[in-house]
Design a protein that fits this description.
Shape: globular
Distance between the termini: 25 Å
Structural class: alpha+beta
Radius of gyration: 17 Å
CATH superfamily of the largest domain: Winged helix-like DNA-binding domain superfamily/Winged helix DNA-binding domain
Bound molecules: zinc ion
Number of domains: 2
Largest sheet: 3 strands, mixed
Number of strands: 5
CATH topology of the largest domain: Arc Repressor Mutant, subunit A
Amino acid sequence: MMKDASAKRIEIWQETLQGHGCRLTDARRAVMSILASSKTALTPQEIYDLARDNDLSLGIASVYRTLEILANLNLIQQIHQPGGCQAYWPTLVGHEHFMICKECGRMEIFEGTDDLNELFQKVEEKSGYQIQEHWLQLFGVCEQCQ
Ligand SMILES: [Zn+2]
Ligand SMILES: [Zn+2]
């Protein structure tokens, strides 16, 4: 199941890149396949190391450049973590949120619900804002790490 999801993701990314006139170099393919199948958010250095472990030769500069392109096309996003925001993960599609295990860094997606609307209404009343979007990220300890 995970494999299908990441294969589909890579397909969409490649189409989007090509649609924007970006060449699909080996380095870009390598970065995409590592990120699309990762269970944890990855920093540029981690992606670089993983690629080298898999005998893919690419420079750290192409890792940064590929991440920049993917982020500009809104295909990946920087993930906020206690240690900083250098790690990336695929952008969520539709009303989804994710949680991160504080022990192993595993990321899990969960379906968003309307439960939060009550909270947002209160925030609107207090602030005078019209809330249009929200971005929610939960931290916890996964089943395996408990
Ligand atoms: Zn864990
Ligand atoms: Zn939500």
